Structure formats: structure tokens, C-alpha cells
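Fill in residues.
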């Protein structure tokens, strides 16, 4: 049977597609954000394999690792609380496809990046798979040909070969340029409220620069939680709210994914997000902040 892959446009989602291209007859790869699947705003077909996204009853198979996602009693595929969705897919197929061990380092690095198990130096000067991951941004649908190109590169090439690919070189250079502006925006629009670093970038609208999402933790390591507020590029009139443990100060003790679930989002214990109407954003931000600082 020919399958399509429906996955998220991030390194984890792309690596899921790499493993599936080694193990199933994959005809096409599509991309979606979790909220679109959760709200049934994207068509899901009976031959779709969903990875790194919420479950949809129409799919053929489902692979995920997000603790806050609703799990059906019966489904084909696998779910477990793993460092990455790619790890879930890899572990599922490895017994039948032992040649997948050639991707062990790729899976290990995907685990680290998805868990934000990073050093201070890596955050300030990303390279290798971490830098590559930062060139993938699901908000920019026009980049879909690049994402598909990356899947093929990750499937067949070494890291050194990938980083020398002309498209990758161009994207990395562009990211570095944008990241300088992003870091400046973070410095200008961040404030601390008790134990929470709040970065409110709504004023940038569609001109929000792309950048290293981990920089906020290096910028302010004394807080143990961060809240990032940005305009939703995919849904005009909506605001994205992301909350996460500080990767350099993991002393918080709340379930972020479950908190975001109350507002229509989701995630893991240590990180999660949601999207809300712009007119409701200030109220919801304050409600979340009250919970985080209690």
C-alpha cells in the first residue's frame, strides 16, 4: 500500500519522514501545525501516516510522543513518552529493519534538540544538526520545497555533505543574519515577572525576524520559566503563546502541556504552546502568568 506522511515542519518531523521512507512505500510528504490537526482544519486521508502531530481518526497510522495529546484506545502505530517522535518511529521499525542503525546518530541528535538538552555554548553558537534545525520553520509554507529537499538529504547524505549543500548553506547564512535582529528584539521586548521571563513580540506583526528560540534562556538564566508571545503568521487575528522550562534552570514544577491544553493547545511537561484570538490574548496571558508565578 502506498502511504502519505503528514508531519510537522521541524527537524523531528522531517526525521520521522526519513525513517518512514526507509520502511514504507511513501508517495508524498505533507506538513501541518498541530493546531490544524487538532481543530480538524486539515484534510486527513485513510493512507496518511501522522507523525509528531495530534491523532486524527481518519489516519492509517500514528506516531507521537507529546504527553498532552489525546490517545485513542486502539490505533496502528506507536505512542510513548520518548525524547522525540523520530525516536518512537525508529524504535517501532528497527526490529524489522536493522539497517536503520545507520541513522542512530541522527536520532540521538534529534532527541537532544527536541528535548533542548543543549549547552550554553551550543545555544550561543549553534552548528551541525542544531543549526540545521533552526533553518526549518513551519510558519513559512513557501519553504516546503526546502523541507522536502532536507528529507532527501537526511536520508542519503552525511552531516558534512548536508551542510555543504547550496540550499542549506544559503538557509544557514540567512538564519545567522536574521538571528542578529531576533536577539536584539528579545533584548528589547523582554521583562521579568517573578520567576518568568516574558518576551512579547506582538508589535512586530508579520515582520518578526526568525531566530534562535533558545537564546532567551541564555539571555536570562535566573528565571525558571519563559513565556513567548508572537503574532500567528498562519492565522491573522490570532496570537501564539509558548511556555517552557528554562533549559539552564530546570527548577520549575508544573506540567506546561496540560496547562496549554486548557487553552486549546498542548505539549510536554516542560514545554507547550497554544494559539488564541488576539482580542482574548491579554486576558489569557495574565491567567497563564498568574498560574506560573503563584
Amino acid at each position: 500500500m502506498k502511504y502519505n506522511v503528514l508531519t510537522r515542519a521541524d527537524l523531528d518531523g522531517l526525521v520521522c519522514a526519513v525513517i518512514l521512507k526507509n520502511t514504507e512505500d511513501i508517495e508524498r510528504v505533507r506538513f501541518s501545525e498541530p493546531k490544524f490537526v487538532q481543530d480538524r482544519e486539515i484534510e486527513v486521508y485513510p493512507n496518511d501516516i501522522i507523525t509528531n502531530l495530534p491523532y486524527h481518526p481518519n489516519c492509517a497510522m500514528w506516531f507521537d510522543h507529546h504527553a498532552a495529546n489525546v490517545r485513542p484506545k486502539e490505533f496502528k502505530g506507536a505512542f510513548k513518552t520518548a525524547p522525540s517522535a523520530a525516536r518512537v518511529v525508529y524504535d517501532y521499525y528497527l526490529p524489522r529493519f536493522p539497517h536503520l542503525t545507520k541513522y542512530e546518530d541522527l536520532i540521538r541528535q534529534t532527541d537532544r534538540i527536541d528535548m533542548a538538552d543543549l549547552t550554553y555554548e551550543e545555544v550561543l553558537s549553534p552548528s551541525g544538526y542544531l543549526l540545521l534545525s533552526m533553518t526549518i520553520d513551519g510558519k513559512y509554507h513557501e519553504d516546503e520545497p526546502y523541507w522536502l529537499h532536507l528529507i532527501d538529504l537526511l536520508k542519503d547524505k552525511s552531516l558534512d555533505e548536508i551542510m555543504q549543500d547550496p540550499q542549506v548553506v544559503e538557509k544557514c547564512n540567512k538564519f545567522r543574519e536574521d538571528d542578529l535582529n531576533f536577539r536584539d528584539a528579545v533584548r528589547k521586548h523582554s521583562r521579568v515577572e517573578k520567576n518568568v521571563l516574558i518576551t512579547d513580540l506582538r508589535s512586530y506583526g508579520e515582520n518578526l525576524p526568525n531566530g534562535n528560540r533558545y537564546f532567551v534562556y541564555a539571555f536570562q538564566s535566573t528565571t525558571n520559566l519563559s513565556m513567548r508571545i508572537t503574532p500567528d503568521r498562519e492565522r491573522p487575528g490570532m496570537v501564539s503563546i509558548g511556555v517552557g522550562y528554562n533549559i539552564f534552570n530546570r527548577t520549575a514544577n508544573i506540567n506546561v502541556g496540560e496547562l496549554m491544553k486548557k487553552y486549546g493547545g498542548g505539549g510536554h511537561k516542560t514545554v507547550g504552546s497554544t494559539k488564541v484570538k488576539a482580542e482574548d490574548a491579554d486576558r489569557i496571558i495574565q491567567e497563564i502568568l498568574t498560574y506560573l508565578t503563584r
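DSSP finds twelve helices and eleven strands in the chain.
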